[in-house]
Protein: CRC domain-containing protein
Organism: Eruca vesicaria subsp. sativa
Amino acid sequence: MDTPQKTLTQIENPISKLKHENSPVYNYINSLSPIKPVRSLPIPQTSGSLTYSSPPSVFTSPHVSSHKGSRLKSDVPASIGEEEALFETETPQNLENDCTTRVIDDGETDLVKMCDGNVKQKSETLVWDAMFLDSSDDILIYDLKNNDSEASRCFLQTSSESKSRSLCVAKPTLEPVMNSDDPLHRGVSRRCLDFKMPQNDEQTSVASSSRCVVPRIGLHLTTIAMSSKDNNVGNEYSLSGHSRVGLQGSATPVLNLQDNVRENETGQGVKDGAMSLALVELNQSSPKKKRQFGQAGEGESSCKRCNCKRSKCLKLYCECFASGVYCIGPCTCIDCFNKPIHEDTVMATRKQIESRNPLAFAPKVIKIPDSTIEVGDDASKTPASARHKRGCNCKKSNCLKKYCECYQSGVGCSINCRCEGCKNAFGKRDGSSFTSMDIEQDKENATSGRGRRERQPSTPMPFRQPLAQLPISSNNMLLPHQHLHGASGSSLHKSQSFTEQDMSLLSHSRIETITGKRTDDIENLIQSPIPNMINAASPNSKRVSLTHLDSSESSPWRKNGGRKLLLSIPTFPSLTPHH
DNA sequence: GAGTTTGAAACT
DNA sequence: CAGTTTCAAACTC
């Protein structure tokens, strides 16, 4: 039935049919951006090699992109997603040309050096498999000021040594979560699915086992962000002087922890590796307690421990699989296929699932700027900083239990939800939400017997602080893909559509952050429907194609059955290798 | 720890 | 696309 070995239908790459270059949007962006769009180069597919898929081409529906057979390099130059395209896997030639465009903000120069250096070493590829491959949908803040640090050098070295197809580089220092100079934190990795080319194992192993181990951290940023007790950590990524680098394109588990996992496949190592992640993977606890997320809001921990019995850990039921990590020691799954030794199977299954639902591995929670923005009906403005992307469908739990994905993620329900009798403590669907104080007050009240005080709309606790600012490229180009924040760690893949919240985020952030005379232009760009470039993407009937939008509508955010239209813009590149 | 409930995922 | 089934986590006892 759902055997992972099922042959996947090769579907003609529809991306190539998209003539983005001819689109007004493309031309427009081209005029705005000094960055040359990435041109595709035919890359021969190596049979049997696992390769990293590229981020999605712009303006393709998630579904479309999910079928890109050979997607090492998209044919589609970027329009809105130009920056995203720049994160694509590339050939060295391209890297020479393009890696300088991959960094946003002030870190650009440094990265140029890094890229140059890397290219000059004639590395076959640059490795972007930086640290946060798991929730790479998050915006990463790299300290590019000290790129001559050992970690940086090592990173470059490792990059040049590795033949894994991956993306550009940045100094793998994330502050304040971790200091790469801290030897204790070096080499931290996780059991992310590793789609490295098998033949690279040896090299990779050498690299990773060497002293110069890049601190690769399968870090669920959102987990940190959502850790209500770690606000100081989770939400402080945007440090001055740091550049934000969207890892959008690297989402897939290029993380080089394969070695770690593999050598641990049968032994203690896995556990050791997992233990080493304790720093960043919070909530480690007794294996018996599969989930100790604490209060809701810590959300989907990166530390997945499944207990699958029948799914072979190859379905989304399996949290490990859904999160893009291999099952490891603490898992008590039966007949598990979600292990490095079944890499091919895992990959095939992922691909299959993606073909069915390109957003299957997308982060479930998206961040919304910390202010009141409209996510609900016109009448209900929901103050919230994060929302479940797809929304819940609770019927009996009133969104008050962890059955509810919204509640579990520590976010309020939104218009996306179809829940009944929503009482989500992080924000009801009708727009009310509570502050952390409210929640704690509720706890107190519950224990003390006092009544609940009147609530003031506010932001759900886990996201009170913005995780990252709106990424704007050096030329003020919006990088829509960088708005999203992975909550599930799954995040190995990026969705390729924007939910309404994404767009709310987008538009809102635009207001907040875009400055300069191009603001209006960008605004127009964002709000202008893009016929034929935004395709239907309705894996769960919750996304509406703008293609179907009546052009006579005055607003691109036309309601549709009470829901706003969703602009489908590639945001989560499918990074599943496509053979 | 076993059994039940729940809702997402998968299937038809 | 809607209804049903399967599944595993959450929950209860």
In short: Residues 290-291, 306-311, 315, 317-319, 397, 401-403, 408, 541 of chain A lie near DNA strand C (CB under 10 Å from a C1'). The mean pLDDT of chain A is 46. Residues 343-356 of chain A form the longest helix (14 residues).
